[in-house]
TrEMBL record:
PROSITE patterns: ACB_2. InterPro entries: Acyl-CoA-binding_protein, Acyl-CoA-binding_sf, FERM/acyl-CoA-bd_prot_sf. GO terms for molecular function: fatty-acyl-CoA binding. This is Acyl-CoA-binding protein. It comes from Leeuwenhoekiella aestuarii. It comes from the Bacteria. Gene3D superfamilies: 1.20.80.10. Residues 6-90 form the ACB domain. Pfam families: ACBP (PF00887).
Length: 90
């Protein structure tokens, strides 16, 4: 898959994920979130001390991003596409 095909498949997967009525478990939602952000190179980590006390949602997102921080954008896009195909029906 060349770069343009990968980008098109990534955007198609993102559209599919955003339009789905399927209710996904929180751990899968976090995987999708982290891989989408990393694939778009929008995963700038905020300092952990900036997460407000009792802000569990942000803490989980932060943790999901940390877990894949070594992944390249290309690898993240491929994994995002795979996850969407696996968890979201056609």
């Amino acid at each position: 898959m060349n770069k343009e095909e990968l980008e098109r498949a990534f955007q198609d997967a993102a559209r599919k994920a955003s339009e789905t009525k399927t209710v996904l478990p929180p751990d899968i939602q976090l995987l999708l979130y982290a891989h989408y952000k990393q694939g778009n190179q929008k995963s700038k980590l905020i300092p952990v001390e900036n997460i407000k006390e009792n802000d569990l949602r942000s803490a989980f997102k932060y943790n999901a991003l940390i877990q894949i921080k070594g992944l390249s954008a290309t690898e993240a896009k491929k994994e995002y596409i795979r996850l969407v195909d696996q968890y979201i029906p056609h």
